[in-house]
Amino acid sequence: MNIIELKDICKTYGRGAEEVRILRGISLTVATGDFVAIVGPSGSGKSTLMNTIGLLDSPTSGSYVLDGVKTDKLSDSQMAVVRNKKIGFIFQQFNLLPRLTALENVELPLIYSGMGKSERRDKAKRMLESLGMGPRTGHRPSQLSGGQQQRVAIARALATSPALLLADEPTGALDSKTGTEVLELMIQLNDQGNTIVLITHDPHIAEHAKRVVSIRDGEIVEDKRNVSPPRQVVTV
Ligand SMILES: Nc1ncnc2c1ncn2[C@@H]1O[C@H](COP(=O)(O)OP(=O)(O)OP(=O)(O)O)[C@@H](O)[C@H]1O
Ligand SMILES: [Mg+2]
After folding, report:
1. Of the candidates 232, 109, 114, which has an alpha carbon nearest to the alpha carbon of residue 159?
2. How far, in Å, is the centroid of ligand 2 from the Cα of 45?
3. pLDDT averaged over 10-residue windows placed end to end, the chain, 236 residues
4. 3-class secondary structure, 4
5. Does residue 216's CB lie within 6 angstroms of at least one atom of ligand 1?
6. How many other CB atoms are found less than 10 A from the CB of residue 74?
7. Burial of 16 by CB count in 10 Å (0-12 exposed, 13-18 middle, 19+ buried)?
8. N or C: which end of the chain has fewer CB within 10 A?
9. 21: CA distance to ligand 1 center in Å?
10. pTM of the model
11. Distance 46 CA to ligand 1 centre (A)
12. Which helix (H) or strand (E) holds 3?
């Protein structure tokens, strides 16, 4: 079963002489349970691709089937529903809401999905506990370290049990020790059956994925499987 089926995806900005082609015919399928690292130099189109996969942005042309759902004719509001249901996002800068506590941040996607209050409190609490954040559910983001904020963001991403976890440079804002912990967490989540697509420009992180897709100037230039990716992370 494929969770992602991208066919000939192009993304351009501007028109005529101003036109810039950011994605140039990306075709990519990702199987359920896989752990894919997307790598490439700055400006190569990684985040644009991730925004397309995450239904945050529509391609200029091409087709995209997400977990069996054809996405090209969805309205913005239908897209938001599919996104909330199927995708958990993890960003470099965590993207937590500063005025909300850790618990309230994790509850947010559950509110959008229509879950009742006590059920979502419990759910959010359990998610935070499973990530070692039990004692800090009442803290606001500014009262947490970078690694702790990323754990809250991961709890938020996982709260809706999404079919797909998308992470854009999830360790990019962390020191190497904390980054290692977050990478270990991602490996663990994949071992538990979560499908992960992670963007990184760090080859050390990509080594731990099962598959590495390299992008350059908006095109896939390499797509390889890591034969036995290490399940433990050694800090370099
Ligand atoms: N809204 C936009 N309008 C015009 N150009 C854009 C827009 N968004 C992104 N771009 C351009 O698209 C190209 C790819 O950007 P993208 O953010 O996907 O790169 P990236 O591979 O994620 O880079 P990085 O590693 O620095 O995060 C860049 O040249 C960027 O300037
Ligand atoms: Mg980027």
Report:
1. 109
2. 7
3. 97 92 98 97 95 96 97 94 94 95 96 94 95 95 95 94 94 89 91 95 91 97 92 70
4. strand
5. no
6. 18
7. exposed
8. C
9. 10
10. 0.92
11. 8
12. strand 2-13
Q: Is the CB of 11 under 6 A from ligand 1?
A: no
Q: How far apart are CA 37 and CA 21, in angstroms?
A: 23
Question: Residues in the chain, how many?
Answer: 236
Which tokens sit at 174? 């962390």
Is 18's C-beta closer than 6 angstroms to any atom of ligand 1? Answer: no
Cβ pair 140, 114 in contact under 8 A: no
CA distance 160 to 179: 24
Question: At 152, which helix (H) or strand (E)?
Answer: helix 146-158
Torsion from C-alpha of 30, 31, 35, 36, nearest 10 degrees: -20
What residue ranges define each of the domains in the chain, with the CATH number in brackets?
A: 31-60+69-225 (3.40.50.300)
